[in-house]
Design goal:
The chain is an alpha+beta fold. The chain has 12 helices and 6 strands.
Length: about 350
């Protein structure tokens, strides 16, 4: 039966914590939380004591024995590393043995790797497991984000690649404990749509995505600021244009008012005094209008000049009319009396 959509949650996979790769390697091999750092430390101390007793057989006062006591443990360290002896002793509890993959003893057996049950690989103090679950092989490296499916064809190539990179490979012999993944994958094959990444690469991509999003937010904020500044500049420009338009309208209104006053004065034929005064006013206004064309006046100055012009227009012309009437004959009778005199 073949199910393309089945996930691999049933496979137990411990991810890397500190330098506890030996613990992760054993638990991923046995498919459960069978060993803790305390358990492995206890095995390491037991091995250290056995080594000390062997060294003491040569004499507790010997130079070799004193040197051995001064040296740190070769089976564990403070970082969480455990030696192959600790792993081998831990597997003996379950009746499992380790055989070196490239040893003459094993190579002489000429066993196809796909017929084995599991492998343990070690390079520079890092341990990880390759195990067969059901009819498929999986790389259970604790440095990966999840189990990695390995085809039967690729298994031999993968082991050869590890050997070229300097890995020591050990074959697991014996009966592994039963597990849920073995039962499920024994009747149902899986196909992996996306291979897992290294934990460091996954975190780097997450961090890079966060940085990119932050840069996009910054660019977006800068764009918003630029838009706000542009809006303010356009608003100020519109205000200045409105002021200039108001001043231009005021100038045109004054000019039209003066032109209308001049035409009404001509049609009504006013007295000589009024004509003179109006001519003077028009000339002064015209001069003022010409001068206003040559220099820029503020709106307040234009309003003052317009008000002054209207004030002059509203002044009475009665005295000038009386004076002109006194110079003319008062009546027809006076005109007739003059010749008689």
């Amino acid at each position: 039966m073949f199910d393309r959509n089945l996930n691999m949650d049933s496979i137990f996979h411990e991810k890397q914590e500190g330098s506890l790769c030996a613990q992760h390697c054993l638990n991923n091999l046995l498919q459960g939380e069978y060993f803790t750092p305390v358990d492995l430390s206890s095995i390491a101390h037991q091995l250290d004591e056995e080594e000390r007793m062997r060294m003491a057989e040569g004499g507790m006062g010997s130079e070799e024995y004193r040197t051995f006591l001064q040296q740190p443990s070769g089976n564990m360290d403070d970082s969480g590393f455990f030696s192959i002896q600790v792993i081998s002793n831990a597997l003996r509890v379950w009746g499992l043995e380790l055989i070196l993959f490239n040893s003459r003893e094993y190579q002489s057996l000429m066993i196809n790797p796909i017929n084995e049950k599991a492998f343990i690989c070690n390079y520079k103090e890092h341990w990880f497991t390759i195990r067969k679950l059901g009819q498929q092989w999986f790389n259970l490296n604790s440095l990966l984000t999840g189990p990695e499916l390995i085809s039967d064809t690729y298994l031999a190539l993968f082991l050869a690649q590890l050997q070229q990179e300097g890995y020591s490979i050990f074959v697991i012999q014996g009966n592994l404990p039963e597990c849920e993944a073995e039962q499920i994958l024994g009747i149902m094959r899986v196909q992996q749509q996306q291979r897992p990444r290294l934990i460091g690469e996954d975190e780097a991509q997450t961090s890079a995505g966060s940085v990119a999003q932050g840069q996009m937010d910054i660019v977006s904020d800068e764009t918003v600021d630029e838009d706000e500044e542009l809006k303010r500049a356009l608003a100020l420009s519109r205000q200045e244009m409105d002021v200039e338009d108001e001043e231009a309208d005021l100038r045109r209104a004054i000019q039209l008012s003066m032109q209308g006053s001049g035409m009404s004065n001509k049609s009504s034929e006013p007295d000589v005094g009024n004509v003179k005064s109006e001519k003077q006013a028009v000339q002064s206004s015209t001069c003022g209008d010409k001068s206003s064309q040559n220099e820029t006046l503020t709106a307040e100055e234009l309003r003052k000049r317009r008000q002054a012009y209207f004030d002059r227009q509203a002044q009475p012309s009665i005295p000038q009319q009386l004076e002109s009437d006194s110079e003319k004959p008062n009546s027809v009778e006076d005109q007739q009396e003059k010749p008689s005199k």
